[in-house]
Design a protein that fits this description.
alpha/beta, Rossmann fold, Methionyl-tRNA Fmet Formyltransferase, Chain A, domain 2, 2 domains, six-stranded antiparallel beta sheet, 8 helices, 26% helix
């Protein structure tokens, strides 16, 4: 008999996870709890999220809790789930809600817990030059990403991985491994592993703020600049000041042939090279304030780089 599953999630990653469970006959999605539609764009139009559109197309009930205790209580009364599954939901879930289902509540987190508990584990793994990250499937408790681990799956971080490419692989791997882990859990074939609190580290959305995305060529090495650019896509985007204007940096590579002092620049052969604290970085794709995104050759056509800040 299919497991009555209540799914909580709000973004693209959550949608892919939901699809996987909804298409598996071992799970019956009794409802999806997601964030309400919000105004988007300059016109502040209310546009349905992709997850809500999917649910409508599959006749899945959509419910909003809006951080209200009474709404969580009502959801349990209406849907009576045997299992809650959560991925990228966006609210702090009350403990009584987590404990209600027969098979409790399960969360999918993109790090090898207890390392990088919190909101931005993929970005921080890239920023900190980790060689591996992974997926942790965890029984939720009241503390942030601190519940007992049901399963973990390691994923190598490649030298050219961005937040986008690495996240895509983790999402794809989740769709492959999650159903089997949940079925084993429901059947009592998984022994929970308690997290080692002494090894816990945390990351927060503030760790990837626009202020922290500013490149300082005197402070940062070429390797650090490379990691910042890869970690900060698609938001907030690494940036610096070129010719007095804020310039977003979308793609770079380390240049081992040219030696420049920190902040010193070179535009020989239509290449934009900038010296760092250690090493030289080559800018490949950028966007100056009020301009379109362009490759370096297009950017340098008729422009002299006067200063780097």
């Amino acid at each position: 008999m299919a497991i009555k599953t209540l799914f909580l999630g709000s973004n693209h990653e959550a949608l892919e996870t939901l699809k996987t469970l909804n298409e598996n006959p071992d799970f019956e999605i009794v409802a999806v709890i997601t964030q309400p539609d919000k105004p988007t764009g300059r016109r502040k139009e209310i546009i349905e999220t992709d997850i809500k559109k999917y649910c409508k197309g599959k006749n899945i009930t959509v419910y909003h809790t809006e951080n209200k205790i009474e709404r969580y209580e009502e959801a349990l009364e209406i849907f009576k789930p045997e299992l809650n599954v959560c991925k990228s939901f966006g609210e702090i879930i009350p403990e009584f809600f987590l404990d209600f289902p027969k098979y409790k509540s399960i969360n999918i987190h993109f790090s090898l817990l207890p390392k990088y508990r919190g909101a931005v584990p993929i970005q921080m793994a890239i920023l900190n030059d980790e060689k591996n990250t992974g997926i942790s499937i965890v029984k939720m408790d009241k503390n942030l990403d601190a519940g007992n681990i049901l399963a973990q799956f390691k994923e190598e971080i490649k030298k050219d991985d961005t937040n986008i490419t690495l996240r895509k692989r983790l999402v794809e791997k989740t769709t492959l491994v999650l159903p089997n882990v949940l079925i084993k859990w429901v059947n009592g074939n998984i022994q929970e592993q308690v997290q080692d609190e002494s090894k816990a580290t945390y990351c927060y959305k503030e760790d990837i703020s626009k202020e922290r995305a500013k490149i300082d060529f005197k402070k940062h090495t070429a390797e650090k600049v490379d990691r910042m650019v890869r970690a900060f896509v698609p938001w907030p985007i690494a940036w610096t000041i070129i010719n007095g204007k804020k310039t977003k940096i979308f793609d770079v590579k380390i240049n081992e042939d040219k030696i420049l002092k920190p902040k010193e620049s070179s535009t020989e052969d239509l290449k934009l090279l900038i010296g760092t604290k250690k090493g030289t970085i080559e800018i490949l794709k950028l966007q100056m304030e009020s301009k379109k995104v362009m490759d370096t050759k297009e950017f340098l056509n008729g422009i002299a780089v006067a200063s780097i800040q």
